[in-house]
Amino acid sequence: TPTATAAYTETLIATATTAATATRQIPPTPTATPTPIPTPSEPTPPNTIQWDEAAQHIGEEMTVCGPVIGAHYAQSSNGQPTFLNIGKDFPSPERFTAVIWGEDRSNFPTQPESTYMGQTVCVSGLIEAYAGTPEIKVEAPTQITSY
What we know:
This protein is α+β, with helices and mostly antiparallel strands. 22% of the residues lie in helices and 31% in strands. The chain is elongated and about 105 Å long.
């Protein structure tokens, strides 16, 4: 019947209007803003310096950090040293060198010249000068931290 259809249509319109009004009255659900968690940095040992500062600390126990730019195992040289050149490569006099003598090489589980090449490392020990170049003699892997 036309009256029933009109009443039904009116009810539908009223329901839709009520629903639309109700939707506008519901406050939006709050969303949590994520709090960034700071990434912990590697602990910095005391007396830590960058490789290019080592020349100013000859005779001091320090931790020297920087990138291994060159690495060489001089197997046929006297003492069979392994050189880890940090910051700049040999023959630059501005480099810092970590020296592992042949007698200490067996303390390392892998070949140091391969393990540390291209890595950023921190080397701990007494800074000495050899031919004007600062170096630390490394006797154990615990003296080198790789990042």
